[in-house]
Amino acid sequence: MEGRNGISEDWLSLWMGLFIFVLGLGLFVGVDILGWGIKTNVWLDITKALNPISGDLKAMPGITSLFLTYIFLLVITEIGAIAMGANVGRFMIGFTLVFWIGYACWLTGHYAYIAATDAGKMGIGWSLRLTGEAGFIVALMVGLIVGNFFPRFAGVLQEATRPELYIKTAIVIMGAGLGVKAAGAAGLASAVMFRGLCAIIEAYLIYWAVVYFIARKYFKFSREWAAPLASGISICGVSAAIATGGAIRARPVVPIMVSSLVVIFAVVELLILPFLAQTFLWTEPMVAGAWMGLAVKTDGAAVASGAIVDSLIRAKALVAQGISYKEGWMLMTATTVKIFIDIFIGVWAFILAVIWCAKIECTGGRVRAMEIWERFPKFVLGYALTFFFMLFICLAFPGVMKTAKAATAQMDVFRVLFFVLTFFTIGVVSNFKKLWEEGIGKLAAVYVLCLFGFIIWVGLLISWIFFHGVKPPLAG
């Protein structure tokens, strides 16, 4: 939904994301502004699940931290609602319900039997090992239940059911964390960095073009549908689909439907691919890590898959060959590949904005620079600004790296919560009866054909080409 008589969601997400980013920078001058933000831990005892993100505030009760986080987000989103010309009273009620339901889902996803990657350390016999990112899955499922079986309640939430606003704000904040990670990656093994960059360039030059071609030629989708679908399947899931939708001025329903499919299939990949990697790639651990980064289509699921693969393959290598690899290198490979993919989102959004303006919707005359600017997704500017600012600071002043990590960890609390709100509200708007009428069946067919027909396997081949024979260092 765009603002009726005010600022657009695109601009609002830019300013909200930058506001949180600036507050997080307070640590660089010794002022802890966001330290009260809620941190959610994997738990068996729910009383130990909540803590403020700052260690200096560990005496603060977790429930107080959670309430402060809610008040903060309510205030900034309510100001945004006013700026958009939304119904302020209905937005306040809707956002309050969306926040608390979404957070309950996030907390549920952190239950140890669901989230613990090492069940033994938690004192339990088993776990699904989905990490806390399982909270996104829970939020999506609950949202789907609300949207499909409780339409009246979904109507109460409608004013605050704005998945595009939440995900775009999260992307702006995400840029800061990726900038710090990219700076840290500069000191990693150069082979991993170089191979990862080559792998994603090769993969996505193939992926996007093929998916777009199949969607257009064989399933007869319009360009409006084919472009976000190609980006969602091939680049980075929800973020890429929404960035592409903004760049080409697609109707809001288009990236929302694509995002729904991305999340659903990312869950399927998360549950299957790590165990395939353990079975067939345990002798090629870095190939397995890169494969997770190339094949799994959301940041959370990709990193979670990397963590699971790291644990599974290290355990199997130790039992089968007596080899003890250092922890984290497969996860680092998956994350590094994913970082390069995320950086590619902003670049690709700009390229598509230019192409759509010059060749598709504005043909027959000279392209005005203002036309490109008007259709360019503004939140991508925030993503680029936060990314390059943190990258420059960390590379120019290596001594601030510890502070930068602490600052972005605080920002990330809010980035994660905006993701939770995104997943829940995507579920709420994903009324399958309406989506079926819009053509989600055909979308799913394209997704299944492309993802399981060639993307996963091309990603595996490219991972093998660039990481075959590369081994993590041995422990000790």
Describe this structure as you would to a colleague.
The protein has 18 helices and 2 strands. With 476 residues, the chain is mainly alpha-helical. The N and C termini lie far apart (55 Å).
Q: Could you write a compact summary of the structure shown?
A:
With 476 residues, the protein is mostly helical.
Task: Looking at this protein, list some descriptive labels.
single chain, 476 residues, mainly alpha, two-stranded antiparallel sheet, 18 helices, 2 strands, 1% strand, globular
- Major sheet description: 2 strands, antiparallel
Radius of gyration: 22 Å
Secondary structure: helix percent:
over 70%
Arithmetic mean pLDDT: 83
SS content category: mainly alpha
From N to C, what is the helix and strand string?
HEEHHHHHHHHHHHHHHHHH
> How many DSSP helices?
18
| Cα distance spanning the termini | 55 Å
As a percent range, the share of strand residues is under 5%
Number of strands: 2
Main β-sheet, spatial strand arrangement: 1-2
Low-confidence residue ranges: none
Strand-helix topology:
Elements: H1 9-24, E1 38-40, E2 50-52, H2 62-84, H3 88-109, H4 112-115, H5 134-149, H6 151-157, H7 163-185, H8 190-217, H9 223-247, H10 253-280, H11 285-295, H12 299-321, H13 329-360, H14 369-375, H15 379-396, H16 401-429, H17 432-438, H18 440-467
Antiparallel strand pairs: 1-2
Helix pairs in contact: 1-7, 1-15, 1-16, 2-3, 3-5, 3-16, 5-16, 7-9, 7-13, 7-15, 7-16, 8-9, 8-13, 8-18, 9-10, 9-13, 10-11, 10-12, 10-16, 11-12, 11-13, 11-18, 12-13, 13-15
